[in-house]
Write a structure and sequence with these properties.
Length: 371
């Protein structure tokens, strides 16, 4: 019997809040991964993080970390404006980058990453952990098999609440640093999961407003979406909703599948309702023996290792992540231009491929007119 392979060597760049979720996930996978180094410009914070998670090496410069350590995977947990440059640096060092969402701030940056990926042969993966919960995997399998019939209608809602104080962190609520508001930084997890089930979208008609929060970006957006297969969907992304919830609903020909959770789901958060005459489908939903683990970072990181162990390509690939980011860009373009936007319409040179605001934010134009 072959001996087990040694643990994958892993590092984390950026030791702020989200990095703790990554480190805690890795701590549950100690037989498969070893967290060997961290880097952060704030050396005090990095040292405290390393002490808490028993990390042997601490760096203030990500380039020094990548030059000094032999790594299989580097987790990029920095503010969004640095994601693309750090992912490029990792790939140029021969290391796979696992990047917190959003992968980049623009479609142009995504295409630049694709060029580096092609040149180096290394990969960029994006953290969309909700794809990897057992129920989501089961839903995709049933949907793709045709067992549930055609998907006809879907709703996707990220109804969260963030107070004004939340935006005191300098990089939040800014186009140039965070890339956008709830469409980019919050709802993206839910509509990425929706896209993973329904496949390619074909057109979007959207609205976006800054209703109440002290931001440069929107604090709410609403989109009506047509998918390539004909499904019609609505997508709402809000930071103004005191009763917080994350909801997805898929109405197939033969069943409705619903999910309601907040920041991570288990089996109890799903509901399966067969259409009259198709009651036998309920046994396909409840018949799985998958472990009931919350759809957090652990499930995606473990899926990366599983793919490597079996010689497969891990997700979420750059191509898939670009489709999700294009969905966000098209939402903004439709909202700010007041037109319907088709998939693939935002081509090189279009302002909305260069930045999510596209230089067309209505409230910015009003402010400039009053100045």
């Amino acid at each position: 019997m072959p001996s087990p392979r040694p643990p994958y060597r892993v590092a984390i760049i950026g030791t702020g809040g989200i990095a703790h979720a990554h480190a805690e996930a890795l701590a549950e996978l100690t037989e498969r991964a070893q967290l060997v180094a961290v880097a952060d410009l704030d050396t005090t914070r990095a040292a405290e993080f390393a002490d808490r998670f028993c990390v042997p090496q601490v760096f203030s410069d990500p380039e020094d970390l990548l030059e000094s350590e032999q790594l299989d995977l580097v987790h990029i947990c920095t503010p969004p404006q640095t994601h693309a440059s750090l992912a490029s640096l990792a790939m140029s060092s021969g290391v796979t980058a696992l990047v917190e969402k959003p992968t980049a701030l623009s479609l142009r940056e995504m295409d630049e990453l694709a060029a580096v990926q092609e040149k180096t042969g290394s990969k960029v993966l994006t953290v969309f952990q909700h794809r990897y919960g057992a129920a989501a995997v089961r839903l995709r399998r049933l949907a793709r098999s045709g067992t549930l019939g055609r998907p006809l209608v879907a709703t996707c809602e990220t109804l969260w609440y963030r107070s004004d104080d939340y935006f005191e962190v300098p990089w939040r609520g800014r186009w140039d640093v965070e890339g956008g508001g709830p469409t980019m930084g919050h709802g993206i997890h839910q509509f990425d999961l929706m896209l993973s089930v329904l496949g390619p979208w074909s057109q979007i008609t959207a609205l976006a407003e800054r209703q109440a929060r002290p931001t440069d970006t929107e604090d709410v957006s609403i989109a009506a979406v047509r998918f390539a297969g004909g499904t019609l969907a609505t997508v709402v992304n809000s930071l103004l909703s005191p009763r917080e919830t994350s909801r997805l609903r898929f109405d197939f020909e033969y069943a409705t599948v619903e999910l309601e959770h907040l920041y991570g789901y288990r089996e109890e958060h799903w509901r399966f309702t067969p259409a009259p005459g198709h009651e036998e489908l309920a046994t396909l939903w409840t018949g799985g023996d998958e472990p009931d683990i919350t759809s957090g970072h652990r499930v995606q990181i473990e899926a990366v290792f599983d793919a490597w162990d079996t010689g497969q390509e891990p997700g979420v690939s750059l191509q898939e992540a670009r489709r999700t980011l294009e969905f966000a860009a098209a939402t903004y373009a439709s909202a700010f231009r007041g037109v319907r936007v088709a998939a693939g319409e935002l081509t090189e040179g279009d302002p909305f491929t260069l930045s999510m605001d596209g230089g067309a934010v209505p409230w910015e134009r009003v402010k400039e007119a009053l100045a």
